[in-house]
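thread: overnight batch results

M.L. [08:02]
morning all. the overnight job finished for the chain we discussed friday. pasting input first so we're all looking at the same thing
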Amino acid sequence: MEKTFITREAVRQVLDVYWQQYRLRPAHTAIGLLSPAIGTILIFFIPPLIVAQLVNIFASQGEISLRIIGTYLTLFGGSWLIGEALWRIGIHYLIKLDTQGINNLSKIAFNRLVGQDYDFYTNNFVGTLTKRGLAFSRGFETFTDTLTFNVSSNVLPIIFALIILWRYSFWIPLVLIFWIAFVIMVALPIIRRRSKLVAVRHEAQSKVAGYLADSMTNIFAIKSFAKEREELEAYSRHVDDFTTKAKRSWDYQNLRFDTVISPMYVMANLFGLLAAIFFVQQFGLGAGVVVVVFSYYSQVTRIFWQINRVYRNIESSISEAAEFTQLLIKPPKVQDIRNAHPLKIGASNISFKNVDFKYTDGEQSQDTFLENLNLDIKGNQKIGLIGPSGGGNSGIGRETCQPLV
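M.L. [08:03]
and the structure it wrote out:
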């Protein structure tokens, strides 16, 4: 089997068919993508504002009345509860979107596979086709969940945080933007290098899945010839290759990406805290600003750890699905005629007129055992041929191209 190279056309087909699933359910898509993002703002970004206000009141008055405490606690708890409710609503619609999308894409994958010609199946392992067909539909779930939990749920809160921080001083959000851009600039080359290791790992994993599926498909032949040990050894070589390549990609994540990002994460939060203290003193801002800035910096810089996950999940889901569409870039050589009329067999007859038949043994001809045979079989008629073994019963059946009972 030739190695499959993913082309832009294959990726474009995946994105097009995924986009069609979103267009089929615009309400589910909008609610599923936006509700968790708004919920994140209410859970993680509104409460620090409330706490900051309480700190400012306490710093200016030296005490806080029970009425004010009750008011702010109500706002604090209400914001959090509404945020949690929005998350539940968003996930509810996201589940609907995922399941309906997987349902449609699974049927699309099956329909495309059965539309291929015989050459297609002789050049592709059944196990590999199974894995790639399932990845085509399940990739939609991974892609959609990544957009919801890692992209939308981070982008909108970051915009909200930058707007709030801008109200105190435009330097505070600028420092945050600098660190985000700097980390992305440093992380992307590392992620791209790791993505090559991930691609190699996926290819090895496909071979493991394909070999296992093919072994199970031919298990009766394997057992009949007592080849279990040989099959296990061959399968073990595929597994060893996969685990070696998987370990290499996982080590790269831990020893390269995480090792580089960790100090940047600490430095970004340190600079955020220093900026908050400096500008509070410089512009006479309330003490609660320190709470807001530190909370927002710590929440926003968490995306440093998600950059690799977002890139990996999107690339993995799209590339695995594209392995399926890549197989189908070239149309089958033998295709059904579009809008063909159903095959309807009317009254058809079979007639033999003066038929002679003899078997040959090499160049030697045997005696003729059918001579001057005349036979008429009407459409939908069943006849029986009765005679001794070797008398020509099966020979006549083969000549009529249909079984005669």
